[in-house]
Amino acid sequence: MHFAHDTEFALRMTTALVNTLRNGEDTLATVADLAGFLDEFEFTGVRDGTVAELDDVRSLRPRLRAVWEADGDLAAVDIVNSLLREADAMPRLTRHGDWDWHLHVTRDDDSVRHRVGAEGAMAFVDLIRNGDLDRLKRCAAPDCDAVLIDLSRNRSRLFCDTGNCGNRMNVAAYRARKAAGERR
């Protein structure tokens, strides 16, 4: 399935935001961390740069993670609709910077939390409408609680890209095979 460029971007951003709190470590701990995150994802609009704004965005992470943990479409739809309703979402087409036509879901002067939440929710809308919620996965590494968005054609991605999990698991499997071969 091919998604619009802004949908894929929002899915990647939402995944990255959820993964700023993983395995007990919070990498979105300071106002500077939030500014770096927003810069990385070319986030436009008003930013307060305050601890209150940071706390507001951090409070969004469990709600977004809940979409990965939702038990079926209806549970995910409830979360998505709630995020859109809270943000008073009013999608509109826009073009700026290096971006071609894409959607902005809220006003540019809305809070960062509402803008991030609504953009993530709109990306989830595309997954739900296309029957692609199974693209939202948890990392298959037993020692990792990160989430991932599987945008591969065959939906075969298993590991996140936050902690080198795929490489670690492949090395562990290789060592286990080698050890089993030596015991024979």
What's the helix and strand layout?
Layout: H1 5-18, E1 21-22, E2 25-26, H2 31-40, H3 51-58, H4 61-69, H5 73-86, E3 92-96, E4 99-104, H6 112-129, E5 136-138, E6 147-149, H7 165-183
Helix pairs in contact: 1-4, 1-6, 4-5, 5-6
Describe this structure in words.
This protein has helices spanning 5-18, 31-40, 51-58, 61-69, 73-86, 112-129, 165-183; strands spanning 21-22, 25-26, 92-96, 99-104, 136-138, 147-149. It has a single domain (5-183), classed as Jann2411-like fold (Orthogonal Bundle), CATH 1.10.3300. The protein is globular and about 65 Å long. The mean pLDDT is 93. It is mainly alpha-helical. It has seven helices and six strands. Helix content is 50%, strand content 11%. Helix 1 packs across helix 4 (61-69).
Secondary structure: helix percent:
40-55%
The arrangement of helices and strands along the chain is: HEEHHHHEEHEEH
Straight-line distance between termini:
45 Å
Looking at the overall shape, the CATH architecture is: Orthogonal Bundle
Tally the helices: what do you get? 7
**Any idea how many domains?**
1
Radius of gyration (Å)? 18 Å
CATH topology: Jann2411-like fold
Low-confidence stretches: none
The shape, in one word, is: globular
Structural class: mainly alpha
CATH top level label: Mainly Alpha
- Could you give the order of strands across the largest sheet? 1-2
Main sheet record? 2 strands, antiparallel
Beta-strand percentage range: 5-15%
Mean pLDDT: 93
Per DSSP E runs of 2 or more residues, the count of β-strands stands at 6
CATH superfamily: Jann2411-like domain
